[in-house]
């Protein structure tokens, strides 16, 4: 499975982003991801576990060391995308912009 194929699947990057905040049970992760359906969440967790990006522990699901490394690589893309959205689409009303203002 190619990395970009995995990351391009719906909710893959959102799950990684949410798990960066700390471990979460299935229900907690579903709540963090808001509109994700249980079946999609289950599929993405399975995909991410097979790719050694997410693991299940006693505390719930969490990023593996490889997942943590991947998240660190994705951070510059997140920052770039905020600038891009602001410049191209004049988007400034999004929760992600709040972290940039602080």
List keywords for this structure.
8% strand; 6 helices; 2 strands; two-stranded antiparallel ribbon; Arc Repressor Mutant, subunit A; mainly alpha; 102 residues
Task: Itemize the secondary structure elements and their pairings.
Layout: H1 3-8, H2 12-19, H3 26-32, H4 38-50, E1 54-57, E2 60-63, H5 65-89, H6 95-101
Descriptive notes:
- This protein is mainly alpha-helical and 102 residues long.
- The longest helix is centred in the C-terminal third of the chain and has 25 residues, at 65-89.
- The protein starts with a helix and ends with a helix.
- A hairpin with a 2-residue loop joins strand 1 (54-57) and strand 2 (60-63).
- It has six helices and two strands.
- The chain has a domain at 3-72: Winged helix-like DNA-binding domain superfamily/Winged helix DNA-binding domain (Arc Repressor Mutant, subunit A, Orthogonal Bundle).
- A two-stranded antiparallel sheet has the order 1-2.
- The protein has helices at 3-8, 12-19, 26-32, 38-50, 65-89, 95-101, and strands at residues 54-57, 60-63.
Oligomer: single chain
Largest sheet data: 2 strands, antiparallel
Question: Could you spell the SSE succession in H and E letters?
Answer: HHHHEEHH
- Assign the CATH architecture of the domain at 3-72: Orthogonal Bundle
CATH topology name of the domain at 3-72, in short, is Arc Repressor Mutant, subunit A
Distance between the termini: 38 Å
**Alpha-carbon Rg, integer:** 14 Å
Q: In percent, how much strand structure appears in the residues?
A: 5-15%
Roughly what percent helix? 55-70%
Number of helices: 6
